[in-house]
Design brief:
This protein has 428 residues and is mostly helical. It has helices spanning 3-36, 40-56, 58-68, 70-86, 95-109, 112-123, 129-158, 161-181, 199-207, 216-227, 229-258, 273-294, 300-321, 328-345, 352-356, 361-389, 396-420. α12 runs parallel beside α14.
């Protein structure tokens, strides 16, 4: 097997493992909170603690990946969050300690996606990047689907606390794999603990803020990134993607219970279907983008914009179809179409970091993913206010308003990407 294929598969398994952990904790703590008779607002605070750590660590994670290499940052990330999982209290009575553990997990996982992009940007040529990034990020959705199928049974057999130990051990297992095969770039031995810096990396290390040699160059780089309309095109689309994604993911149980009058847990094998389709369509988007470049001879920018446009417009239509659902099957279909088309769009904006800033892909991804995390916090809260203002979750009118807002954001982001996205190196 080609070394670059091994790297891509290792990065894919990294995102899969991380999302098994996230879903696993949600399943475990929901059961533990029920046993402890915790109020809903306490449960919500614990479940959201991860995102506070995750949101603030994206940019530092990208910086660390660029400064020390994606391999080392991934090692530190997986070691830290795996240990935090293993040390998480096994019951819901220790709320403060559990919140602290979840913040630590979020802080540690903040370096995951920027580090993966940093590694892939050095291993994968431009005409293969859409497939590589799409496959890698699709691990999130396959991991979510697998966790939803398997972990409830594990919890029932061995107890909810067993999930915390299981996901922690899975993280350490991936770490062992990465220590064996991980490498920052072709030609660098995975076991080399003193990886030599390239000229550009050495200059960056000298220029980044905090290095005693100089901070002016690093400040200039950050300023240049933040002034770039191409970077903001990616940021806006990451925000729009995650606004819709987190809206559906977090409000899905309420949508089924209050609008369709169906318990989500009663769906059985249909429950992970949206995530499985999202996994498949994420890879379709990647293959489509690379095919446009290789076979249709489209420019990189045109290929990214084409895939992004199809994905975002389709997702806007699909998310509007959810409030129109009249039963369980139509609800599952609408949800699956929404998640699938969102997955397709990742073959556009989500690959573009490595097109415009291959040397600094992790840093751009850190900025972009911060916006994506912020979208989750804002979108979930705004949806709650909209539903309350419309008379509660049982009012279909509120769902129409909330999903219309998501659709408008998706379409607006698509226009921004078409206007300002670039396909050539802007920062190198």
């Amino acid at each position: 097997m080609e070394p670059k294929v091994v790297i891509v598969l290792a990065c894919f398994s990294a995102t899969l493992t991380a999302y098994v952990e996230r879903v696993g904790f949600s399943i475990a703590f929901t059961a533990m909170a029920k046993e402890a008779n915790l109020d809903e607002h306490v449960k919500g605070n614990v479940l959201s603690a991860f995102y506070w750590g995750y949101g603030v660590s994206q940019i530092p994670g990208g910086w660390a990946a660029q400064l020390y290499g994606g391999r080392r940052t991934l090692i530190a990330s997986f070691l830290a969050w795996s240990l935090a999982c293993l040390l998480t209290p096994g019951n819901a009575s220790s709320v403060t300690l559990t919140v602290l553990a979840r913040v630590c997990v979020g802080l540690a996982q903040g370096g995951l996606i920027p580090s993966v992009h940093t590694v892939l940007s050095k291993w994968i040529p431009p005409h293969e990047r859409a497939r590589a990034v799409s496959l890698t990020t699709s691990g999130m959705y396959l991991g979510s689907a697998a966790a939803m199928l398997v972990l409830p049974s594990v919890s029932a057999l061995f107890g909810a606390a067993s999930l915390l130990r299981l996901v922690g051990l899975l993280g350490l297992a991936w770490l062992a794999l990465w220590l064996a095969v991980g490498s920052d770039a072709p030609g660098r031995r995975s076991s080399d603990s003193t990886i030599p810096l390239t000229c550009n990396e050495a200059q960056l290390k000298q220029d980044l803020p905090g290095h005693r040699a100089s901070s002016a160059g690093g400040a200039a780089l950050w300023a240049s990134l933040m002034r770039s309309s191409a970077v903001w095109a990616i940021v806006v689309n990451n925000f729009a993607f995650h606004y819709a994604f987190y809206l559906v993911m977090n409000w899905l149980p309420t949508y089924f219970n209050s609008v369709l009058l169906v318990d989500l847990n009663s769906l059985g094998v249909l429950k992970p279907l949206p995530y499985l389709v999202m996994f498949a369509m994420s890879n379709v988007g990647g293959w489509m983008g690379d095919a446009l470049i290789l076979r249709s001879k489209r420019s990189v920018a045109a290929a990214r914009k084409t895939v992004n446009t199809i994905g975002m417009l389709s997702a806007a239509v699909a998310v509007m179809s959810m409030p129109a659902a009249s039963g369980m099957m139509s609800g599952v279909l609408a949800t699956t179409l929404t998640m699938g088309t969102l997955g397709l769009s990742r073959g556009g904006f989500s690959v573009n970091h490595m097109d415009i800033a291959p040397k600094y892909a992790g840093m751009v991804m850190g900025i972009s993913n911060t916006a994506g995390t912020l979208a989750g916090v804002i979108g979930v809260a705004v949806t709650g206010y909209i539903l309350d203002a419309a008379g509660g979750a049982g009012s279909v009118g509120g769902w129409w308003q909330a999903h219309s807002l998501a659709a408008v954001i998706l379409v607006a982001a698509m226009f921004v990407f078409n206007a300002f996205a670039k396909g050539t190196k802007l920062f190198d």
